[in-house]
Amino acid sequence: MAVLRKSFSYPPNPKLLVFMAFMVFSLSFCYFAGNPVHVFQFSSTWNLGIHSLWIANPETAGLEGVLERAAMLNKTVIITTLNAAWAAPNSIIDLFLRSFKIGENTNDLLKHLVIVALDQKAFKRCKSIHSHCFFLATKGIDFSREKSFMTEDYLKMMWRRINFLRIVLELGYSFVFTDADIMWFRDPFPHFSENGDIQIACDFFLGNSSDLNNLPNGGFNYVRSNDKTVRFYKYWYMARKQYPDKHDQDVLNEIKHDDIIIDTGLKLRFLDTVYFGGFCQPSRDLNKVCTMHANCCVGLSKKLHDLKVVLEDWSNFKALKAKDNLDKEGSWRAPQKCR
């Protein structure tokens, strides 16, 4: 005699379902709290690329819109960061913007410049003087005052910048990052290599753009958005834990010899100080200079003084050149205070 088995299912327990939903939400919240901005990367026949799915983050809400409005046709933007100390009237930001206006073929580049404000005062000033501003909020940290070199807050500010630039790359935008204490006198794009993934300025350039012994300066770099650069910026940011007392530039000097360069096929190139100079190693021929950086200089007042001298020298050079119609080399009087 066959035994009939009655199939049945237990009715769902409402309390159990609520508890399970709460646990899933809690675990998800904890995960994303530890990863403020997360991009799921997956491969598919649709070739979705690195910007597959963006998880909203209050600190970067609205960023993509700002980048889109400022971007060139090839999705490249120019980015600088700004805090209240450098945003005050007649401070660094005014000299920075002025250099674009008196440079050769640089004024039009301003429409592609995004100023990333690190505090409310800087954001307010930015909106009064420029079209593309983004407020990068950071919970529990006040970036408004001048940060002394290598202090704890200075290091936090530098690493905040690296992580932000990684986000820009993940969104599919290439960028030229420039410190605001860099004066722009000529369009730099003709001097960028077509096959370089990351092209970075130097405190001291040794003559070969591929030589890893060049001493890079993170204040000016051109980075193309691709899987290699996204991986490198993640690696760079994580390396801060391995070198806790070093800032981003010193950590880059450490990791530029690591296997990630070979493993990813990343092309790291160093920019010649003939075109991208600074107070460490000035570009002596004003007929060739694209940018001039107040590097190797600590202190806002010193930077302001010497950058004003740089702008005066450039204006005088242009006036003499226009008058004589000659290719005068010209020379900088700076650095003066920054010695």
TrEMBL record:
It is an enzyme of class 2 (transferase). It is found in: Golgi apparatus membrane. It comes from the Eukaryota. Residues 109-307 form the Nucleotide-diphospho-sugar transferase domain. Coiled coil: none annotated. One of its GO terms (cellular component) is Golgi membrane. GO terms for biological process: cell wall organization. This is Glycosyltransferase. Belongs to the glycosyltransferase 77 family. Its EC number is 2.4.2.-. It is a single-pass type II membrane protein. The keyword Cell wall biogenesis/degradation applies. Keywords: Cell wall biogenesis/degradation, Glycosyltransferase, Golgi apparatus, Signal-anchor, Transferase, Transmembrane. One of its GO terms (molecular function) is glycosyltransferase activity. The keyword Coiled coil does not apply. Pfam families: Nucleotid_trans. InterPro entries: At1g28695/At4g15970-like (IPR044821), Nucl-diP-sugar_transferase (IPR005069), Nucleotide-diphossugar_trans (IPR029044). Signal peptide: none annotated.
